[in-house]
Amino acid sequence: MMRAYKFLMRPTVRQAQALGEMLRDHCSLYNGALQERRDAYRHASRTTVRYGQQSAQLKDIRSFDPERQGRWSFSSQQATLRRLDKAFAAFFRRVKSGEKPGYPRFRGVTWFDTVEFPKDGDGCRWDSTPHDPVTRVRLQGIGHVKVHQHRPVVGRVKTVSVKREGNRWYVILTAEQSQPKPLPATGSVGIDLGIANFLATSDGEFAPNPRHGRRAAAKLEVAQQALSRFPRVRRDKRTKNHQRAVQTVADLHRKVRRQRLDHAHKTALDLVREHDFIAHEDLKIRNMVRRAAPKPDPDKPGAFLPNGAGAKAGLNRSISEAGWGVFLTILAAKAESAGREVIAVDPRNTSRTCPQCGHVAAENRPTQEKFHCVSCGHTAHADTVGALNVLRAGLVRRKAQPA
């Protein structure tokens, strides 16, 4: 089983400058490889350039430009080229499946924020001594960089990545661990994700929605207005005031993101500790946050009828702010680490089905919170009813799965 660890790095001024140069040079390599593929397809009778061909050119590239490309790890540069190859593989997969293709794009310096080292010991070395209070990671071309290791790393380190977030640097490790021993059986639960409440369980409990983005909206609005007063210029042409305004906006966004992650981790941990089987809705969040489709007016060509776009935009904003996708990903990872079982079920009609008589009707849910069965008269909270139906569907699917 693979597990990831993320630690804050504390580089010196020179090391931070070198880390920025490493990102810039890897970004240049990525864009150059992308340009070569585009030119080969457009001007050379639609020739396809693959990863193996570009990786074979690295030796010549490093000898031709030793100042920018020759001083970095060969393996990290291969990982950058492999990253581009994965982007093209995903592009062709989307084309074949009929989805929106999304051709790989050139990366700006601010977009390219991660450099990966595929193997610990090849261009990098994670140096963690149990009795040494200071942990360091050695990076080729950078040196030994101090790391704030806030928890021990369990298992053998496989890969090392360096990531920039705003003005901070992080090291991300993936470690291979043995399969954990399952925790004692404690019972089953179904959860229903929402907006008014972050989630409701089949036991009748509720987890409140903290709405971190809404709380920070006023400060973020002021910071973005201050940033909008500066003209759009290149990154290296920004004044000190412009840089401070950019950093203020980035800090506010980072704080909201970290608060959302903290809430998701704590909520998922409580569920995993208290239940050995968890069922949730298989939500298609990307489809749920799509914009409202326009409604052309048949009587007036070129005009459109009201389609509720304003209300739908507010709903989409609330769904994105809740962070359901991040929460479900964290829940699955924590359940795997604890030996718990998580199953996703079809969400259709979970809040419209009566748990007493099984009657399905839209009229069973007259309001957002209230559930009242028009057949048997059963009354309960709508989210609790949905969670109970999710649990029952999960148990049925669990029994139907082959051993």
What this model shows, in words?
The longest helix has about 35 residues, at about 240-275. This protein folds into two domains: about 1-175, no CATH class; about 190-290 and about 320-400, no CATH class. The radius of gyration is 26 Å and the shape is globular. It starts with a strand and ends with a helix. The chain contains eleven helices and 16 strands. Helices cover about 40% and strands about 20% of the residues. A hairpin with a 3-residue loop joins strand 4 (about 135-140) and strand 5 (about 145-150). The protein has about 400 residues and is α+β, with helices and mostly antiparallel strands.
Can you tag this structure with a few keywords?
single chain; 403 residues; alpha+beta; 2 domains; 11 helices; 16 strands; 20% strand; globular
CA radius of gyration is 26 Å
Topology as H/E string?
A: EHHHHEEEEEEEEEHHHEHEEHHEEEH
**Pairing-aware structural class of the strands and helices?**
alpha+beta
Oligomeric state, counting identical vs distinct chains = single chain
Topology:
Layout: E1 2-10, H1 13-43, H2 51-56, H3 58-64, H4 74-97, E2 114-117, E3 124-127, E4 135-139, E5 143-148, E6 156-165, E7 168-176, E8 188-193, E9 197-201, E10 206-208, H5 212-215, H6 217-228, H7 240-274, E11 277-281, H8 285-288, E12 295-296, E13 304-305, H9 309-322, H10 324-338, E14 341-345, E15 370-372, E16 379-381, H11 382-400
Parallel strand pairs: 8-11, 11-14
Antiparallel strand pairs: 1-5, 1-7, 2-6, 3-4, 4-5, 6-7, 8-9, 9-10, 12-13, 15-16
